[in-house]
Structures are given as C-alpha cells and as structure tokens.
Amino acid sequence: VAKSLGEGRRRRYTRGMDVAAGEQARMGAEMRQALDTGQFRLVYQPIVELPSGRTVAVETLVRWEHPVRGPVSPAEFIPVAEQNGLIVELGAWILKAACAQAAIWRDELGPAAPRRIGVNVSARQLAEPGFPELVANVLAWTGLGADKLTIEVTETAVFGGGQALRAVKALYELGVKIALDDFGTGHSSLTLLQTLPVNILKVDKSFVDNISMAGRHAVIATALIQVSNGLGLDAVAEGVETAEQAAELHRLGYRLAQGYYFGRPAAQPDFAASAELPSAA
Ligand code: C2E
Ligand code: MG
Ligand code: MG
Ligand code: MG
C-alpha cells in the first residue's frame, strides 16, 4: 500500500504538473489583485433575430486586461477562478454590473434597448447557498425585471443535481430565464431536458460550423430546432460567422442567432446596426 501510495505521489508531482500548479496559484493571486484594482471589465455580444438581424438580447462576457500579460482569455482564467473559489466574488460583481448596464440601456435607449441580458454562471456559483437570493437582490437593486435576465448554465454544471439544480429551479420560479449553454456537447443533453426547467437552448457552435455543407451537422441542427420547438423553447444558434451559415440556419427554422457575423462582443455594441440576411434570390 505504502509503495503504491508513494508511486501515486510521485506521479502526481511530476515537474510538468508542478509548473502548472504554480502557474495556477500565481494566476489566482493575480486575479485577487485584479478584482481589487478593477482589471476586469464586461463586454456584450448581440443575440439577433433572423432574418432581420435586429438585436433582441445580449450575452455578457467578462474580460481581463492584465497589466503585464495583456488580455487573458476567460477560457483560461474562469476555470482557475472556479477552482480557487474566486468565481463567487467575481461572478457576483459580473451579475451586478451586467444588470446595472441593462437598466441603463433600458432607461437611455427605450425600445431600442436589448430586451434581455444574459449572464454566464458557473457550477461553483450555482452550488453556492444563497445564489438565487443574490440574483433576487441584484434585480431589486437595479430595478430590472426578472424576465429581462437570462442565466446561462452548462449541462455539466447542473447534471449532478443537488444544490445547483435546486438553484436553477428557484431562479426559474423567480421568473428569470434559464438558458442551457453549449447545448448538445454534454453527455446527457436530452436526458437533462426531461426534467430541467429551461427556457432557451443555445445550440453549440460545433453544430453550426459546417452547417452549409448539408451533412450530419445540418441533420443535427435540424433535430435540435425540432426538439426546441416541440418543447416550446427558444433556440439560439451560437458562433455564426458567415452569411451562408445564417441563411442556412434560418432555412432550417432558427429564429435567433449569435456570432461574429452579427456582432463581436463590445463594451457598447451598436444596437442599431443589423446584418440582415440577404433575401433569397
Ligand atoms: P460561452 O458562454 O459559450 O460564450 C461564447 C464564446 O464564444 C465567447 O468566448 C464568445 O466571444 C465566443 N464567440 C461568439 N461568437 C463567436 C463566433 O462567431 N466565432 C467564434 N470563434 N467565437 C465566438 P469568450 O468570451 O472567450 O468566453 C469563453 C467562455 O468563458 C464562455 O463560453 C463562458 O463559458 C466563459 N465565460 C465568459 N464570460 C464569463 C462570465 O462572465 N462568467 C462565467 N462564469 N463564465 C464566463
Ligand atoms: Mg454563454
Ligand atoms: Mg455558449
Ligand atoms: Mg459555446
């Protein structure tokens, strides 16, 4: 036993892992400082209606401008923040700032303002006791209606059940919209749909990527829009980069889309701009 334990230890602390762990610890410490000195900011990406290209909602995405390293991708630092727990504080800041921004747009732009704002929430945040209360407090504080907020969760974050699932149910009861992010990439996407209260399916970019080449991607994208329609949910196609993809998605029945073709994430997106689909010739 002692021997296998020793071997296990040695394998765990190989040099490569050490460096990675050190790097993680350093990033964690720097994130703490970044929070205190205001290095995080938010950008918003339009979610548009097809075929008009009109912005109906936005998704909030966090950005970190490191004073020395420059921009750090959330794909890199969010997992670290989840691991060391900093996501709880960072996430609360993101939620407040996003809802405050949505209220400002509503007041300043009136009918031209996006109707809903989406905020990504990680597993760790959902599992935190009191998360639904935090959301309710932020809504009260900003005066934003519950139905104007979409909480984006991933399938893996809620699949374990427990507190995360209870939180999603409580948010749904509150009237907050629930979106399943990166839909179709989890291990049990359809199983989850049988029980999870949800309003929106965000169909993952991987199904959109080769959609114009009438193959299996298009077949799956069609099946997903049928499931979505059948359950009375909204489907948003993620990661739309070309006019061809947008046109094909529209042809397959998609009414909502998001991606670089329609607009990159920006601090102040141009809500008047629209990339209307070229009408079929
Ligand atoms: P996500 O929630 O699925 O966000 C969509 C990602 O796709 C964003 O990357 C967005 O910039 C990118 N994207 C949008 N349109 C296109 C496109 O046409 N082509 C390509 N190639 N990419 C596109 P980003 O901002 O780097 O965020 C990556 C992930 O990090 C997010 O995936 C989300 O899981 C996480 N994340 C970002 N912001 C937050 C946040 O505020 N809180 C939490 N918990 N996670 C966040
Ligand atoms: Mg998202
Ligand atoms: Mg997504
Ligand atoms: Mg995605």
UniProtKB/TrEMBL annotation:
Coiled-coil zones: none
Domain EAL as annotated: residue spans: 24-279
Superkingdom: Bacteria
Name used for this protein in its record: Diguanylate cyclase (GGDEF) domain-containing protein
Residues of the full protein shown: 462 to 742 of 742
